[in-house]
Amino acid sequence: MPNRPYIVGNWKMNGVRAMLAEARAIDRGAARHPGVKVAIAPPFTLIHAMAEDSQSIAVGGQDCHAKPSGAFTGDVSAPMLKDAGAGFTIVGHSERRAIHGEDDAAVCAKAEAALQAGLDVIVCVGETEAERDAGSAEAVVCGQLDGSLPRSESATAHLTVAYEPVWAIGTGRVPSLDDVGAMHRAIRARLGAIYGEAAASISILYGGSVNADNAAELLRADEVGGALVGGASLAAESFLAIVLAAEG
Ligand code: PGA
């Protein structure tokens, strides 16, 4: 049975407590679309309040440390996320990879830590514009999958992959539907090579400038199981329009 479409909002470093009203509106709206799995990854500071407040959406982190605790000033661990009410975390977002220098091995360690803590995990991959122009987009993404995906037992039951071309994030530019479908098929094939039959249960999300206007089309592309949404997830109106589009 195919998974429910999965629409995840990544609030990045946006949101103070006043934004909990927006999350409440998203939660109420999501209740009207039970055929779609809806989640928000707010800043760490809002996870607990949002999780306490939400009935229909999952709440998660945007990153976690690979270690459960220790002398890592400023970091947040997977067990801490779980304790705050998170059900999942994103790892390997391109902003973490680029700004914080996280390589595939670091992303993999974080994904394993999340699973260990009982969280579901969304592992992000995606090529830069230079890599796409050089014709190496699929090779880069498959390399990231090889290096970043957790291999622990039953990982597939808790794993989602998000394909986010770096050049499409926050730019208003999106790949052609053919390119989205081709990359998602390549990812599906690689997941099959890594996990075997269990890979069939893994949803592959598209991310990068998804909005209320383009969501329906992007979500129809081959092997697209949902969307990871940045900017358009910050307002209930635009985010719920994407949820509606996912319901088809
Ligand atoms: P965007 O961000 O929707 O604002 O392009 C997506 C993401 O970075 O997850």
Summed up:
It is built from 10 helices and 8 strands. The chain is an alpha/beta fold and about 250 residues long. The protein has a single domain (about 5-85, about 105-125, about 135-235, about 245), classed as Aldolase class I (TIM Barrel).
Average of pLDDT = 97
CATH class equals Alpha Beta
Bound molecules: 2-phosphoglycolic acid
- Classify the helix fraction into a percent range: 40-55%
> Radius of gyration in whole Å, from Cα?
17 Å
Strands, count = 8
Structural category is alpha/beta
Through-space gap between termini: 17 Å
Beta-strand content estimate: 15-25%
Largest sheet: 8 strands, parallel, barrel
**Oligomerization state:** single chain
Q: What CATH architecture would you give?
A: Alpha-Beta Barrel
The general outline is: globular
Count of domains: 1
Main sheet strand line-up: 1-2-3-4-5-6-7-8
Order of helices and strands: EHEHEHEHHEHHEHEHEH
CATH level-4 homologous superfamily: Aldolase class I
CATH topology: TIM Barrel
Unreliable spans: none
Number of helices: 10
Question: What does the secondary structure layout of this molecule look like, with pairings?
Answer:
Elements: E1 6-10, H1 20-30, E2 37-41, H2 44-53, E3 58-61, H3 78-84, E4 88-91, H4 94-99, H5 104-116, E5 120-125, H6 129-133, H7 137-148, E6 159-163, H8 177-195, E7 203-207, H9 215-220, E8 226-229, H10 236-247
Helix pairs in contact: 1-10, 5-7, 7-8
Bound molecules: 2-phosphoglycolic acid (PGA).
